[in-house]
Amino acid sequence: MRNRSPLVQQSAKSLLIALRSSIAVILAVDAIARPLYRPFIDQVNQWKIMQALDGLVVRLPRPLVLVLFGVPFVIAEPLKVFALLQLAKGHLIFGLLLMVFSYLLTFFLVERIYHAGREKLLTYSWFAWGMQQVTWVRDSVMPYKVKFMRRAKAIIRMFRRSAA
User: Fold this and answer.
1) CA angle centred on 70, ends 67 and 75, rounded to 5°
2) % of the chain residues with pLDDT over 70
3) Helix (H, G, I), strand (E, B), or coil: what is residue 83?
4) pTM score over 0.70
């Protein structure tokens, strides 16, 4: 193990906290949106063209799987941030269309390619490390998500009763 200066160690810890915080926000937004889009995605996943995409990805060499995964990912993720900025600026229609497009790109390409090529992608040590961070954050946040969802459902029931 290398000896690192306290400044380098502290910087690395700070960057890791920032990374994990960003992952937590992304996972939270996904958890909120998932019930809305999941039935549609499940339906589309049954299409033959989507199953053919899986078969193609599985047969590709590791570097091509990375490129096939990376290109739509590098487009879709920043596009989500840009869509939020457009919404914040008051461009409701444009922002919503961008958001929907970026999520569709993620659901239909990025997630599909990841699941089909997961084993090959995880052979890259840096990719495996990144996925370990995502898993750590998801597992750390899950108890809070369960509590939040229970409270949200209770509040919704309360509003429904009061409206009835």
Assistant:
1) 130
2) 96
3) helix
4) no
